Amino acid sequence: MSIKSNNIVPFSIFEASAGAGKTYNLAKEYIKLCIKDSPHHIIYKNILAITFTNKAVGEMKERIIEFLTEIPKPEGKHKDLLDSLHTELNLTEDDIKQRCKKILFNILHDYNNFSIYTIDSFFQKIVQAFALELNVPLNAQIELSTETIVNQIINNLMARVGKDEEQQLNQFFLKFVESHIDDNKSWKIDKELKEDGTKNLFSEKTIPSLQKIKVLQLNDFQDIIANLNQKKNDIDRHLKQFGKEAIGIICEHGLTKNEFSRGTVFTWFTNISNGIYENFENATILKFYNRETNNYTKETEKKYDHTTLDAIAEQLRIKYKFILQDYKIYVSLNMILKHIYSVALLQEMQRGYETIKQQRHLTHISEANIQLSKHLQQEKVPFIYEKIGSKYQYFF
Question: Contact 127/361 with Cβ under 8 angstroms?
Fold first, then answer.
């Protein structure tokens, strides 16, 4: 084990592998700090120790109580610890023993202020202190496991699917399944829903977006889908029309596919007129649009007036520009329509979470974190200490 100390800030780092004595050294430093606090022996109220698991919390508390209990005994089993404290604190052994007795008495009679927590339990204490400000019940529990609550949400949702009174949900669920089949995704839909829920329901990035659409019901989504499909169909007609107009410009000047090098430009506009929207990144098309080439064959350039050919090319570029603008909207509408069923089901999951919250009087830790952060941004830092009833000066 190695201990690193910073000479500027009283900060120490204990580096050790499992079983190398981290708990022993942390407990030793804890009681060492308490022993220094003479004559009051209440510095433990200002010490906050944070660890990861409940098991680690129990081990550290047990070790501290053990040290404080054994050191005062005449034949205590921690004579080596007593010797170490005697050397490091420059106190007599009797003085150390008496102080340990007083510290132990105070801790046992004021156990609530023996502040050793997991990260999650400490955060829950803070949230409960801010229950009024966060508008959560005083007895609300902070749900720490995303997997547990998402599983319950999905189980409740799946129990509704297939019932006669859930026709809208059934339709959305069917569309969700079809989209997964089209994308060659897993047929285990409950697994996919759980992944979506775990990823999005309690993410600090997505919660604000979900809040914006929480008023939407499934029938609202149906109206949105109908409007999006109408817009998509309108754009589709515009694109085909622009393609036909481009071919019309070519034909009215007596040109055909053969007047273009490899027929690329002519074929591209023909495809657009037929609803085939592809090759927007084709090198030849891009060079044509950027005026690097007019895409005519050498024979065409010899046969026709250059001014006329340039004018035709410019008109085609204008059509390409309109097509490109509408195509971007068309792609966006397709993407929205592709994912809107997932969003609708995610909103149903969110509504299911709200039901569980009311039934079980709980709040997920991510939601509490966002609300707490917003509130604390408007308050002075000391307000936190007032709310949790403690002001910590030492941290483990």
Answer: no
- CB neighbourhood size of 395 (10 A): 10
Q: Could you tell me which residue, 289 or 387, shows the higher pLDDT?
A: 289
E strands present in the chain: 2-6, 11-15, 47-51, 116-118, 141-143, 362-364, 394-395
Global pTM value: 0.66
pLDDT in tens, 104-158: 888 888 888 888 888 777 777 777 777 676 666 666 677 777 888 888 888 888 8
Residue with token string 């098309």: 285
Residue pointed to by tokens 């499909």: 229
- Alpha-carbon gap, residue 281 to 278, rounded angstroms: 8
E strands of 64-223, at which residues?
A: 116-118, 141-143
| Residues near 224 by beta carbon (within 8 Å), at least 6 away in sequence | 216, 340
The answer to whether the beta carbons of residues 47 and 396 sit under 8 Å apart is yes
Cβ proximity of 81 and 142 under 8 Å: no
162 contacts 170 by C-beta, under 8 angstroms: yes
Tell me how far apart the alpha carbons of residues 55 and 132 are, in angstroms, rounded to a whole number: 31
**Three-state DSSP string of 281-336:** CCHHHHHHHCCCCCCECHHHHHHCCHHHHHHHHHHHHHHHHHHHHHHHHHHHHHHH
Q: Which residues pair with 362 in a beta bridge?
A: 141
Using the Cα atoms of residue 49, residue 54, residue 56 and residue 59 in order, give the sign of their dihedral. Answer: positive
